[in-house]
Write a structure and sequence with these properties.
Layout: E1 3-9, H1 13-28, E2 35-42, H2 46-56, E3 60-62, H3 65-70, E4 76-79, H4 86-95, E5 99-103, H5 110-123, E6 127-130, H6 137-148, E7 154-162, H7 179-182, H8 186-201, E8 205-213, E9 218-220, E10 239-241, E11 247-254, E12 259-265, E13 274-281, E14 284-289, E15 295-300, E16 311-314, H9 335-352, H10 360-379, E17 383-384
Parallel strand pairs: 1-2, 1-4, 2-3, 4-5, 5-6, 7-12
Antiparallel strand pairs: 7-13, 8-11, 8-17, 9-10, 11-12, 13-14, 14-15, 15-16
Amino acid sequence: MKNLNVGLIGGGFMGKAHSLAYSAMPMFFWPAPAMPVRKTIAEATEDLAAEAARRFGFEQSTSDWRKVVEDPEIDVVDIATPNHLHAEIAIAAAQAGKHIICEKPLARTGEESKAMYDAVKDAGIVHMVAFNYRRTPAVALAKKYIEEGAIGRILNFRGTYLQDWSADPNSPLSWRFQKSVAGSGALGDIATHVIDMARYLVGEFASVNSILSTWIPDRPLQSGGADALGNVRGGDGPRGDVDVDDEVMTMVRFANGAVGSIEATRNGWGRNNFITFEIHGTEGSIVFNYERRDELQVCFANDGGDRRGFRTVYTGPAHPYGDGLWPIPALGIGYGETKIIEAHDFFKAIAEGTSVSPNFADGYQTALIDDAIVASAEKDAWVDVPRVAELAD
């Protein structure tokens, strides 16, 4: 079993999630495909980096991400930074021959994503974009049912990602509200997860017709270096402009003829992490709600008329990833487990010299969908979605 040295760039919330996954993956999936070694973590300052190393169990730290990329001992570069840094780091890491996992969205625009995609293709390394929600066992089970033909030909997809963490107009001006850093707002931050699920479960997008809304035009400037999320009051000081969307709604035409809709907002009071989809096919329906992530609701057309309706399947050992997780159905799958599964699949691909999905091609395709959604909102019209050649039918 080979050790693979990880260089993690970014010690915030996602850095914590990734570090947990590297620590726990061999405990869940044994024998592990490879052993992640938490080698080096990079943060904005030496003090922050040293603190992150102690907290997350890394052997050493640095305030210069380039030292991570250039270190010949590093096998894997993990990018968990704000979006505006993804492209520069990933391209440098690819040129250095490192395997790469990058947080979503892959980049701020399709153009940046293409540059990253071209770099990893040229380098011939394993690359992954961290759309971890598709690795929720119930979502993977939905994929299994669809591939088996249990719900027939898909007719309709409806997906949501609703949150309320920015509904308070006095919550601080996180980088997630700044186009120069984030690229977009609710679209890139959370709607991309639903877009990824739609592509994973239904297929490629053909065209979109979209609305983007910004409900809160300015927010209090943050104090201190840490990014503030949630409905935390920002105080009565100076305010800065919000130049990204707070909400996105889009209709979708899929390449296979199905239709759908996607809605995402960070201003939905009472909604925490409300990721849902409902899929209707000619032979049945599937419903999922991430806030009840051990459950999948299914209804099949061949059920008798006296018992037709949604039933609940509780995921467990008999379902995708069940062998590596908990021994009792509905014992409880959390966010951390999706990251553990993600780490397993990524390291397995490295160990076996294979590709993994979603990769930078998928991230690039999602960015092209995002760009089409923005263009549609600006034109108030249907806009066709270009297709990454690797993903073309």
